[in-house]
Specification:
Elements lengths: L7 E5 L2 E2 L5 E5 L2 E6 L6 E9 L3 E11 L12 H4 L9 H19 L4 H7 E5 L10 E9 L2 E7 L6 E3 L10 H14 L14 E8 L5 E8 L8 H17 L5 E9 L11 E6 L4 E5 L2 E5 L12 H12 L6 E5 L5 H5 L6 E6 L2 H13 L5 E5 L7 H7 L7 E4 L8 H10 L3 E6 L2 H14 L3 E9 L9 E8 L1
Parallel strand pairs: 4-6, 7-22, 12-13, 17-18, 17-20, 18-19, 20-21
Antiparallel strand pairs: 1-5, 2-3, 3-4, 5-6, 8-9, 8-11, 9-10, 11-12, 13-14, 15-16, 21-23, 22-23
Helix pairs in contact: 2-11, 4-5
The structure holds S-adenosylmethionine.
Length: 471
């Protein structure tokens, strides 16, 4: 059978992809269907035909899946941020569990029965809404009005929203006030097609426990120093208006970030603090953290503690361990080990994050944690030894970005040869690739235990913590 673009077709959804698309099969032809969930029957239109798969979009539901729930978000089908808002949360968790197991079994080449024995499943959220502590929101002009929203998946089309159910409570109010302030102070809005206009995006961050909020206004203004007074008045208006409302939280600091480049990179190189200290303070458990706008901080304000508690549980420290924490960010995991290890050395590529990590150690009066700013793939055992006075590491913690570990980092781990590796991963596929190397190719490690934490409800993303022990 052959199919063509714009053709309409009825499809039974039998599975879901890791991007949250429904999967259907007609004879042996595979379809990936937008806005359809497991066990829906839909009328769909074909949007793209490729050699292996046909993409389609559901136009109407012919018969509804028993897992279908009503989305409380007005724009969930167009925004692309939360692809699974129509899928019952319990079913989301079941699907993620299967994805983790199947991926590790297939790519990591580990027997499914063995995996089942050491997999503790997915730790789910009690209330999977209003969990994001960070909102990055672009602004634009549409029909001569200032609008804001999220970019629809893989596009630069802004989908406007009045409220976002993923964002922390109060974020919607702040966004509205920022829009008002842009209009009131006649600040032009950036147009990425012409590279003209000033206001590009805002980054709003909120402490999980402290409720402190930082605002970072990303602007395209070469003459920012001449306009500083205007930006201060603009910021004051936002703070004052926010305080007049419910103001559950405190806007403690605002920063201007000057980005005059014509690229998709969020931050420019120049920061000017308009108010406060340029960072917020937060705490996880008993450990306090300073967080700058550029630094990585886990986005789920309710689940990060569960994630870090799993790291500690799996590490099972006796108090005598020397630990290497690769990809340490602002030192969150390193410092969470407070009182449980002999020494910890954190390695991180972002300079500002390393500054935060060092001041966080001081803030918590922790003297056995050191931090260096380095590309994990460029470090050698010698570099580490000179920074860590020749420590031999018993445990290596890795928490890389989605792309996982590169060859140089795996070589470093081989060189260190730790007794235990704790791997924190936001992509089961790259985790699986890396453990295949460590467990099957090198035959040096076995998977001891692993669990997933649902840091990203209503998306197919899932975080996994795994302990690997030396054979
Ligand atoms: C997933 S985050 C984890 C951070 C930290 N463990 C936490 O839980 O907050 C990954 C971190 O790795 C850093 N990073 C990315 N590439 C790196 C590299 N090549 N070398 C060192 N750090 C890197 C990022 O800046 C980010 O802070």
């Amino acid at each position: 059978m052959s199919f063509s673009k714009n053709e309409k077709i009825e499809l039974d959804i039998i599975d879901m992809t890791k991007d949250g698309l429904g999967v259907a099969k007609v004879d042996s032809q595979v379809f990936f269907v937008k806005n359809a969930i497991l066990e829906d029957k839909v009328n769909a239109v074909i949007t793209k035909v490729t050699a292996n798969v046909i993409y389609a979009k559901a136009l109407e539901i012919v018969s509804k899946s028993k897992y279908r729930v009503e989305s409380k978000c007005d724009v969930s089908n167009s925004c692309g941020g939360c692809q699974l808002l129509n899928l019952d949360y319990k079913k989301q968790i079941e699907l993620k569990k299967q994805i983790v197991l199947n991926t590790i079994s297939k790519i990591g080449k580990i027997n499914l029965d063995d995996l089942n024995e050491c997999y503790e499943g997915v730790i789910a959220m009690d209330t999977p809404h209003r969990f994001r502590n960070k909102m990055q929101v672009p602004f634009a002009i549409r029909d001569r009005k200032v609008v804001y929203g999220f970019y629809a998946g893989r596009t630069h089309h802004i989908v406007e929203f009045d409220y976002c159910l993923a964002g922390f409570k109060g974020s919607d109010v702040i966004l509205n006030i920022i829009r008002e302030a842009i209009v009131k102070y006649n600040i032009s809005v950036y147009d990425e097609n012409t590279n003209e206009g000033v206001f590009r995006e805002v980054l709003i961050r909120c402490g999980n426990a402290s409720n402190e909020i930082s605002l970072t206004y990303i602007i395209n203004d070469k003459n920012y120093d001449k306009n500083l007074e205007l930006y201060k008045v603009f910021d004051n208006y936002i703070v004052e208006e926010y305080r007049k409302g419910e103001a559950l939280r405190a806007l403690v600091t605002s920063t201007l970030n000057i980005n005059t480049s014509n690229t998709n990179v969020l931050f420019g190189n120049k920061n000017i603090i308009l108010r406060g200290l340029g960072y917020i303070e937060d705490s996880i458990g008993s450990v306090k953290y300073h967080i700058s706008p550029e630094s990585f901080y886990q986005v789920n304000m309710k689940m990060t503690k569960s994630l870090y508690d799993k790291v500690l549980e799996y590490a099972d420290f006796t108090g005598n361990e020397n630990v290497l924490d690769l990809y340490c960010g602002i030192g969150t995991i390193s410092l969470y080990m407070e009182g449980k290890v002999k020494n910890v050395l954190g390695v991180e590529i972002v300079e500002k994050a390393v500054e935060n990590a060092k001041s966080n150690a001081t803030l918590n009066d922790i003297s056995n944690a050191r931090f260096i700013c380095l590309d994990a793939s460029k470090i050698t055992k010698d570099i580490i030894s000179s920074n860590a006075a020749g420590l031999n590491f018993d445990t290596v913690v890795v928490d890389p970005p989605r792309k996982g570990l590169d060859k140089a980092t795996i070589d470093l781990i081989r060189d260190i040869d730790p007794k235990k590796i704790i791997y924190v991963s936001c992509d089961p596929a790259t985790l699986s690739r890396d453990i295949d190397i460590l467990c099957n190719i090198d035959k040096k490690y076995i998977v001891q235990r692993f669990a997933s934490v649902d840091m990203f409800p209503h998306t197919m993303h899932i975080e996994t913590v795994m302990s690997l022990i030396h054979v």
